[in-house]
Amino acid sequence: MATSYVLSSSSSLFLSQNDVGVSLFSSQPSRSIQIMQKKVSRKIESIMAPQRSARNPSMTGSVKTRMTMTEKIFSRASEKSQVNPGDNVWINVDVLMTHDACGPGCIGVFKKEFGDDAKVWDREKIVIIADHYIFTSDERANRNLNFVRDFCIEQGIKYFYDITDRSDFKANPDYKGVCHVALAQEGHCRPGEVMIGTDSHTCTAGAFGQFATGVGNTDAAFGFETGKVLLKVPPTLRFVLDGEMPDYLLAKDLILQIIGEISVSGATYKAMEFVGSTIESLTMEERMTLCNMVVEAGGKNSVIPADATTFKYLEDRTSVPYEPVYSDDQARFVAEYRIDASKLEPVVAKPHSPDNRALARECKDVKTDRVYIGSCTGGKTEDFLAAAKVFLASGEKVKVPTFLVPATQKVWMDLYTLPVPGSGGKTCSQIFEAAGCDTPTSPSCGACLGGPRDVYARLNEPQVCVSTTNRNFPGRMGHTEGQIYLASPYTAAASALTGFVTDPREFLR
Amino acid sequence: MPAIYKEPRNQALVVILLHASIFKPLRLHITGTEFFLWFSNSSYAFFFLWFSISSSRGFRFLSVVCSSSRSRHHQPFASLATSNVFNATKQRSFKPLISQSIVSSTSPVTRRTSVVAAATANSSSSASSTSFHGLCYVVGDNIDTDQIIPAEYLTLVPSKPEEYKKLGSYALIGLPASYETRFVEPEEFQSKYKIIIAGDNFGCGSSREHAPVALGAAGVTAVVAESYARIFFRNSVATGEVYPLESEARVCEECKTGDVVTIELEQSLLINHTSGKEYKLKPIGDAGPVIEAGGIFAYARKAGMIPA
Question: Which residues of A touch B158 (CB under 8 A)?
Fold first, then answer.
């Protein structure tokens, strides 16, 4: 600031003085110095005041302003040495994802703006996934997938996870399932990179220490041609979670707790950074669940620093080199929240908002008509393992229809092959069958977002549903008057066993 | 010779004007009205009237010739390109006898080539418009994209004109029964409410671009909300379907569905004619240059990011 320059020009000795108006200048009794002294003393005060603006005196050499993880990714991707929150920059995209629901719109805009002969900027950086409206007889949905397929063939898109035989998903080797889980399982998520997707839950990939956010068709179409997107650098909210995770708690409870704390618009235009010993103890899939729902708090993206868990997960999944980034020690955060995970209890989000948080045990009088376990939030292998654990501990049958929708083909296979710890070698599917749940269905987004009328497990009546999905706004799963309680897989399984919203400690202690 | 001079009426006009330039020197930058008055004294008035009525381009052509400093017979026919210069300087007082839509074909609104969109948006949704007017529809906080356009309708592809139109008919159909007034009447494709007034976090939820598109297809010109969810805001700006404005006060509690409102962009004001109150709006901020350019593609072309 100008004030500091004035000081440095008068006397460098003064800078080290803490006391105001020390008579260092007593040997120079001239009035101008005294006036200078007075002026200077006021200026010292202003220097001591906490600095609120982002502007620092420019630094030289390799000393740069401390940046958060998100800011560092932005600066690397925009090829600038430094970025500040609020800057609008063009960043290079490493992976651009779209799916069968938004793909057609995206392709339409792309062709309109760049011509029918336009070619995408990089055939290997685009991933197109069939996952939203797959197992339906809706004509338009099927037509849309054909349209997307034609585009992929024409452009030579390397990663198109397609399905052609809808009657049997297993007959389609390319078919994966829910995009966000498929992206992770196929090794497209890498630390330090930029991922853009035409889906709000693209932020899930932040679990890998990358910048991942959702955009609309127009922005994605722009990215198709240029490989760039115009984004504003978000300031970061830091969440420090410490304490040992209780064995009745899952990452879903953590994020529901946080959203309930800051509200559905608490993180709008901001990045959410999760650090702490609890985070370090989470597996990759749990971290993905945590990052998945930041958009429900309005968040632009979420990041979790990459560590040994991340590298281990990526070992067999990708050979593309990556360079993780980490927040600087003195990086500036908008706010910091400290949470002691060991003190938390299972929570649910009551209708009709993800921030309508309540303790699961306080909702034990709420009768439920059905339970849905699935989606990118709660349909991964570990989510089903968790549900199986509760069914196993109880040994009883479910009292309400329980729908199981694995997120991807791989998850489906895990249900039928992986042994559940403590079960004596039984697989999830056997435990689910013994508990009377519905047979796990073909993997896709399913009824998380309602969709065409014939989608499996869609809420076609005004019923109450306990679900491991991510949103419960009116009509989310189909019927406008449907009541959706968002919960962790533990809570969902416990609720299935009693027919009421139930705290999983009823079975897990 | 350029095609324009081959048309017989243009050639007739040339003759008329040659006469005029020989017998009565024309003044510079004469307006159409003055020219007409002069002309009405001569028997060639009917030529003038007929010419200008039959083609507004012809009228501009006339204006060009009037403004040329030396109307020499072998040289006065300035190309149409200069007519733009003329029009630019005379725009305020010059009123062509034919009103012609001046929405350029590259504006993001007419990028959707639906006839319906062009018809409703011609005067109020182009990047250069300064006000929006109409009935308002009031909604509360946290209106998410599933309420704006439920997922079952996402199979409609916005870039297909018939499906774009259909999206409009489903706009805000996901609102719960507590909203007694329907936004779009059954069997209709457009809403009679042109402006939406909302509370906090409007457009939260999904990234589906179908949300602002459905509102735009239904005829909504602008939304005034207390705050927006970021993806919806981006999509509104990128597509140019609705103009997203932020209010300073909680206008969703002050206005009622059916109130007649006007939004004056230059003054950043929302005027509720029914209640007689005015509300300050926040400046558009960083999105301004993108909206003014006409959407993200036009903005990028201007910035040289993509070839024009």
Answer: 105, 108, 217
